[in-house]
Write a structure and sequence with these properties.
The protein is α+β, with helices and mostly antiparallel strands. The chain has helices at residues 2-36, 45-66, 72-84, 140-169; strands spanning 85-89, 92-97, 101-107, 113-119, 122-126, 134-139. The chain is built from four helices and six strands, in the order H-H-H-E-E-E-E-E-E-H. Strand 3 and strand 4 (113-119) form a beta hairpin.
Amino acid sequence: MKKQTKKRELLTIVLGLYQIIGGLIGLILALIVILNIKSLQYLLLPVVILAILFYCFSIFAGISLFKKRKYALRISLINQCIQLVNFSFLGYAFEYVAGIYVFLGFDLTNSFQLDLNYGLSSWILNINNQSSTIFLHFNVIAFLIILFILKLIENQKNEESLRDVEAIGST
């Protein structure tokens, strides 16, 4: 039992590191974009702030795992769920990734095409930008991490239940 707990703690630390590093890479990329913009338009400012908040959320999720907060796995699950799907449809687009991504999806802009893309932290938010691009992508890495987090949550609940039963038995 202790071996499983140690393994779970190590994997949780790795997940925390992944989220912190992914968030930091995203923040650095956002700052590079800000520094390279000649004149920051007021309409662009909320989008940049939103990107920074998402990357800070990833860092917060990672730090919460390190501090072994009770809500840490749920926060991490939310962070990965936000990264699961990205899309572009008639001028509206959303993409958020804090960490590594492998996108598998469909591009329907000119015809039906299968897409496979990969890279590091990414952020796109388009609102009515006159683009005719249409695609839907799923982040395979985020999907695998979601499955991993769900397994960690299940294991955590099982360990808590076992401790409760042992506590009842020892009284």
